[in-house]
Amino acid sequence: MSLGLERARGRYREAMDPIRNPYAPGAGQRPPELAGRDTELDMFQVVLERIARGRPERSLVLTGLRGVGKTVLLNSLRSSAVRSRWGTGKIEARPDSELRRPLSAALHQAVRELGIRDEDSRNHVLGILKAFAQRSAGADAKLRDKWQPGIDAPAVTGRADSGDIEIDLVELFTDIAGLAQDGGKGVAIFIDEMQDVQPADVSALCAACHEISQLGLPFVVVGAGLPHLPAVLSASKSYSERLFHYRRIDRLDREQADRALRTPALDEGADFTAEALAALYEATDGYPYFVQAYGKAAWDVAPKSPITAEDITVAAPAAQNELAVGFFGSRYERATPAEREYMKGLADLEVREGVVPDPAGVATKDLAEHLGRKPQSLSPARDGLIKKGLVFSAERGRIAFTVPHFGRYLRSQPEL
């Protein structure tokens, strides 16, 4: 046996070491190979460069089901902005929280990242930001009750502190963008779970982005959310359809899924057989989270490289358990008994309507009939599931799961 072949085999044995497993099925964790997102990354780089040259551009909204990698892509876009020396900040919206406090913290970070040398100008804008943040406690709140955002500058009154979030955001974004422009830079704010932003705050965000766009200032908002996010924005401001670039983030096609699996494996001196890749795509449907979960499980059980279809069969129970506990089960546990009944009915009905579930979901009237209930009686369960991010309504009168394969999971768990 040649020394080169011995080294190759030794490298393959090492590659199967679980410690060197390259796959990352964690929530929001960047996979070793960000496959299938080059278009969005390139488009955002164009947006940054156009704005830097004073050209008009729109902010960006990413939409898609859970598990398609929206958060990962959002973080990657933020990294692009950082490399372009923009000031950046990120928040995760919550349905029970107003935007003022988390947005203040994100904007504070963005201003710090700008590194503006003009101390007077920087402190003036920080003072406006501080006054904006402190309005979260109300105009009549005592000093001890006001939130202290950690801004080392005295509050500046009379700007962005009216208490009307729409007026305040327009003024605040304008001032911060002006500061960035004077320094030859820009600001990008990234909002995850954007569909959970409260209606008044959504309206204010749209109005502020509209004003910034009209003034040609270097400020962009990049949002990520569930498929009904465009409808949320449109309901707030009719012009929101023209205010953002909308990009639907979907599952990977076969070539992209193979790349997501093979590139990190090859970097570790390992590979997959063609049959193994075919089996993995059939099991995962190209959903990035599933690709990572199955890739990790396959790596851990494979005795050597290349990983085979037989290895995938052996690994499937471990991958399914990972998804059942960390992806499906944790979400199911958050639902009330009434909400679980609603989801089980939805799971049953999406199969009755076709072998491949309709992406728009099922008709709510059909679901009510299937459950033997009046449509109105199901409204509390439906609304609760929407607030928890488990279902969404892409169009009036229809409902669908936000999580891919969730219906399949529920049908496979008769004990639930």
Low-confidence parts lasting 5 or more residues at pLDDT below 50? 1-15
The CATH superfamily name of the largest domain is P-loop containing nucleotide triphosphate hydrolases
CATH architecture tag of the largest domain: 3-Layer(aba) Sandwich
Number of domains: 3
The largest beta-sheet arranges its strands as 2-3-4-1-5
Helices, by number, come to: 16
CATH topology of the largest domain: Rossmann fold
**From the helix content, strand content and strand pairing, which structural class follows?**
alpha/beta
Task: Give a short account of the largest sheet.
Answer: 5 strands, parallel
Q: What is the N-to-C order of secondary-structure elements (H for helix, E for strand)?
A: HHEHEHHHEHEHEHHHHHEHHEEH
Mean pLDDT rating:
89
Shape: globular
- Count of β-strands: 8
Which percent bin holds the helix content? Answer: 40-55%
Question: Could you give the distance between the termini?
Answer: 56 Å
GO molecular function: ATP binding
Pfam family, one: AAA_16
Protein name: ATP-binding protein
Domain Cytochrome c: 181-347
